[in-house]
Design brief:
Blueprint (H helix, E strand, L loop, with lengths): L1 H23 L26 H6 L2 H12 L2 E6 L2 E6 L2 H10 L4 E3 L3 H7 L9 H15 L1 H4 L3 H16 L6 H18 L6 H13 L13 H26 L5 H11 L8 H32 L1 H20 L6 H4 L3 H14 L7 E3 L3 E3 L2 E3 L4 E4 L1 H5 L38 H18 L1 E2 L13 E2 L13
Parallel strand pairs: 2-7
Antiparallel strand pairs: 1-2, 3-4, 4-7, 5-6, 8-9
Helix pairs in contact: 5-11, 6-12, 8-9, 8-18, 9-12, 9-13, 10-11, 11-13, 13-16, 14-18
The chain binds protoporphyrin IX containing FE.
Protoporphyrin IX containing FE binds next to helix 6, helix 13 and helix 18.
GO molecular function, one term: heme binding
Pathway: Plant hormone degradation; abscisic acid degradation
Membrane topology: Single-pass membrane protein
Length: about 475
Amino acid sequence: MFPSLSILSLVVVLLLFIILYNIIWPSHNRTSLGRLRLPPGSMGWPYIGETLKLFTENPNSFFSNREKRYGKIFKTHILGCPCVMISSPKLAKMVLVSESHLFKPTYPLSKEKMIGPEAVFFHQGPYHTHLKKLIQSSFRPSTIKSSVSHIEDIVLRILPNWEHNHTINTLPEMKKYAFEVAMLSVFGKKLEAEIEGIKDLYQRLEKGYNSMPLDLPGTPFNKAMKARKALHEKLRRVIEKRRESGENGEGLLGTFMLSNEVQGNRKLSESQIADNIIGVIFAAHDTTATALTWLLKYLHDNPHLLNAVKREQEEIRCKRLEAKRRITWDDTRRMPLTTRVIQETLRVASILSFTYREAVEDVEMEGYLIPKGWKVLPLFRSIHYSSHFFPDPYKFDPSRFEVTPQPNTYMPFGNGAHSCPGSELAKLEMLVFIHHLTTTFRQMGSDRRRGDTIRAVSRTPRRVTNQSLPR
Ligand code: HEM
C-alpha cells in the first residue's frame, strides 16, 4: 500500500513540476517575439533535459541522429542549459565570424575559476583584441621559426626513452612533450629556477579541471584551486625577478612584459598576465597531445600512408645529414604528405568537437528564434563529417587535402575572433615529432590484448641522441 502510494505521489509531483516548469519558463515553448518559433528538437525532461541521453549514447550518434531528424539547427537541453546546436558552415560562420558580436564566449564557471577569469577565452571587445594580438605575435610563424631546434631538443630527450620500453602509452608521453613545448613557448628557453615548481603546480591544477566544482576541503576542485593560488604567486615572483633583472625575457611572458613597457599600450596587471599564462598552457598542451596520439594511431592503422610518410621524412633526413645540419623551419615546409596526414587527422579526430557561445540578445537564425541566454554550439565534428563537403567522411584519406576545403567547412582550430592562435605551433610540433619518430623507429604489429593506445613502435639499430645530430 505505502510503496504504491509514494510512487503515485511522485508521479503527481513530477506532472505538477512539468506543468509549472512550462508555465514559469515559457521561453522553452514560446518566443518573446511571438512571430518566431524556436528551432525544432526536444528539450527532454525538466532540468535534466537530454543530458542523460548525451552521456549514455555515443555522442556522434546523439548529434547525427538529431541532425537527421531535425536538420542543421536544433534545440536541446544539456546540463541545465537550453542549447541550440548548429551543423552548417553558413550558420557556424554567422555565430563565430559575421554575427559574433551577438554570441559571447561561455564556459562552465568552474573552468573559468580554475584557468582564471581574465584569460583570453572568456572575453570580447578591446581587452580580448589586445591580448589576442600579443598572443598571436608570440605564436606566428616568424616568431616560432626560431624555436624549431628547441622543440627538436625536446623530441630528442623524449624519444630515446622509448627505446628501453617495450610498450609506450602514447597519450601520457605526448602530454609530456606538448607540456614541455608549451613551457618553452610561454617562458622561453632560458628557464628560471621557479619553472620546475610551476610545472608541478600546473599538474596539480590540471587534475581538477574536470572535477565537480565542490570547494570543500580535500575535494579535487579544492586542491586544484589551492594549486592555482600557489601558481599565481610563483608566476608573480617570476615576473618580479625578470623586472628586477631589467630583462623581460623570452616567450609569451616576455611579450606581455615588453608590451606593458610600451607607451600608450594598455597595461596588463600581474593577475591578468598570470591568468593568460595559465590559459595558454591549458589550451596548448592537451589539445596537441591528443592530436598527436590520434596521428600515431591513424599512421599505425594505415601502413601504406606510414610508409609514404617515412619515405618523405627519410629524404629530408638524408639531405640534412649530408649538409650536417639539424631540422629547420624550411624542412618542415617541405613535408606535403605529412602535412596532409596531419590535416586529415585534425578532421577525423576533430579534437574540439564543438565550441560554446551564448546569445547576448534574442537572435533570429534561419527563421527561428534563439532566445537571449541560450547556449549556441557550432558542431565542428558534424561539419567535418558531412559527406557533402568531405566525401566518404569516415575514410582516413589525406589526399582530400590536395584540394583546399570549401570556406568554413574545415575548422579544427575554430573560426573568427576566438580562433586558435597556436595552430602553427601545434602543426610544427607534430611535424618535428613525426620526422624523428618515423626516421628512427620502425613499426611492429599491435597487440590488442594489452589494450594500449598504440604499440606500434620498436627500436631500430639507429639510436637517437642529441650527440648523434649535427648542431
Ligand atoms: C592540435 C592542437 C590544437 C587544437 C585542435 C586547438 C583548437 C582550438 C580551437 C578550436 C579554438 C577555438 C575555440 C573557440 O572558438 O571557442 C582554440 C582557441 C585557442 N587556442 Fe588552440 N588548439 C590547439 C593548440 C593550441 C596551442 C599549441 C596553443 C598555444 C598558443 C593554443 C592556444 C589557444 C588559445 C589561447 C585559444 C583562445 C583564443 C581566443 O579565445 O581568442 N591552442 N584552439
